[in-house]
Design brief:
The protein is mainly alpha-helical and about 110 residues long. It has helices at about 10-20, 55-80, 85-100, and strands at about 30, 30-35, 40, 55. The protein has a single domain, classed as Orthogonal Bundle (Lysozyme). Helix 1 (about 10-20) packs parallel to helix 3 and helix 2 crosses helix 3 (about 85-100). It is elongated.
Length: about 110
C-alpha cells in the first residue's frame, strides 16, 4: 500500500531543490524561463505558465501542493509495489521535476 500523499518533508525537499525564483520587492513571483527553456513560476510550476505570469507566494505554495498531488496520483497508479513514505516522496519529487503528466485526452 502506498502513502496517501507526499509528506511535509517531501514538499520541503522539492522546495529546496526547485527554489522560489524571481520574487519581486512587492512579494509577487514572476515567471522565468528554466534551463530547459520552459516558462516556469513558483517552485517549478510550468502548466499554464507563460511570459508575464505573476503569482503571490501563497499561490505558488498552493500550486505546488496541487501539482505534487497530481504527480502522487501517477506514482500510485503506475508503481505496483508497496512504498515507504520516503520512497513515495522521492518518486513524486522525481515525477514533478522531470515528467510531464498526460492530459485526460492522452490517457
Amino acid at each position: 500500500m502506498h502513502p496517501v500523499k507526499i509528506s511535509d518533508d517531501g514538499v520541503k525537499l522539492v522546495q529546496k531543490f526547485e527554489g522560489l525564483h524571481r520574487v519581486q520587492p512587492d512579494g509577487m513571483v514572476n515567471a522565468y524561463r528554466c534551463p530547459a527553456g520552459k516558462w516556469t513560476c513558483g517552485w517549478g510550476a510550468t502548466k499554464g505558465v507563460r511570459s508575464g505570469t505573476k503569482w503571490t507566494k501563497e499561490y505558488c505554495e498552493m500550486r505546488l501542493i496541487e501539482d505534487l498531488a497530481e504527480h502522487g496520483k501517477a506514482v500510485k497508479k503506475y508503481v505496483q509495489v508497496p512504498l515507504s513514505q520516503g520512497q513515495f516522496d522521492a518518486l513524486t519529487s522525481v515525477s514533478y521535476t522531470h515528467l510531464t503528466l498526460p492530459t485526460n485526452r492522452e490517457v
